[in-house]
User: What shape does this take?
Amino acid sequence: MRRTEFWERMEAHFGPGYARSWAHDVRLAELGGRTVEEALAVGEDVVEVWRAVWRHERMPDVLR
Assistant: This one.
């Protein structure tokens, strides 16, 4: 998955106005207590970050 697809999925779930804010503010245990932005900044695999968001938000399998 490329980052563009990641952000498209984030915006589809959270809405375009909230996705970046959520990624900046919410810390996920699966990402070592980091935010999505922090995890991506340190080079965490985009797919693993997406999976962490997906599990945290209990998204439908369709969005996996």
In short: Strands lie at 27-28, 34-35. The mean pLDDT is 92. The CA atoms of residues 32 and 58 lie 19 Å apart. The radius of gyration is 11 Å.
